[in-house]
Design a protein that fits this description.
homodimer, about 170 residues, mainly alpha, globular
Chain lengths: ~170, ~170
């Protein structure tokens, strides 16, 4: 296994800053671009990341670290951000995400996790037993999958405009 | 066609800031992670983007906009950054990219391109005739393809650690 808290925290704490530099003040066309009905745009993704800070990453880590037998997680609501983000500006969501993420990463570091802690388990509603290491590695990969998703969604806006270069741009495939 | 200079410039000018927030001070493990021999890591990508500013995006646009018959582009050297980046820190490369990109975007805006300009052509060494619109739309999609690439490469570092979540993380597929 490769996961280490220090390198994971370094990447996690950067995500709000990356998204702020990318999205703040960007023309609405880019922010609202999606891959069609039922798919997410950049605004939706920030709301989804906020919901993860509130209900998934640290809360589930705390469930895993609680004493006694492995406990079952509450299922994650993938649509919760649609109601939670309603009426909020992208700038407000970026601020909220930055505040929550900073607190989450501080908490992660404060756990001072041992290898034995990383092997502790919780019960995922779908997967069954999962380790804290798997959960925390997923937190990092989940940030990265959404960064890649947004880059892909935005690139598709020019999918026709690029003409013959389409063959060389992996993000358009 | 969707391409517009103003919205394209807004995204292009953000890329150096996004990469700086992401990479500056990040543990070396993330920066040097690649997908194996012959593939690029984050450091290589910044060098590649620098080479594009110097030899591709604005230089080819100027060839297309020059008077007379469409002219042939000089082939782009995909390996040039290995020599050009040698001995330079990632911080130096990020600074160089930021400086070059700012100048490129200023030049793009100063062209004050008309639709007729965007329909002008150059001769790509492989594709044959390409329009300025295609070339400039590719500049944007090219930034995004490399952002997605880096997110994918970094996520793969934890490809085994995430356990059963792998099935849900599109970036790991």
């Amino acid at each position: 296994m490769t996961y280490r808290v220090d390198e994971a925290a370094a990447l996690l704490e950067r995500t709000p800053r990356v998204l702020r530099e990318w999205f703040a003040g960007l023309p609405e066309e880019w922010i609202r671009e999606s891959e069609g009905p039922g798919t997410w745009n950049a605004y939706d993704v920030v709301g989804h990341l906020i919901h993860g800070e509130r209900t998934d990453w640290i809360p589930r880590a705390e469930i895993i670290l609680s004493k006694g037998e492995p406990q079952r997680f509450t299922p994650f609501d993938r649509d919760a951000m649609f109601a939670a983000s309603a009426g909020k500006s992208l700038g407000e969501l970026l601020d909220t995400f930055a505040t929550l993420r900073a607190a989450s990463v501080a908490r992660l570091r404060a756990f001072a996790l041992t290898d034995a802690d990383l092997d502790r388990r919780g019960i995922h509603p779908e997967f069954g037993p999962v380790t804290l290491r798997q959960h925390l590695a997923t937190w990092v990969a989940h940030d990265l999958t959404h960064i890649a998703q947004i880059a892909r969604v935005m690139a598709k806006r020019y999918g026709a405009d690029v003409g013959p270069w389409k063959a060389y741009l992996s993000v358009l495939k």
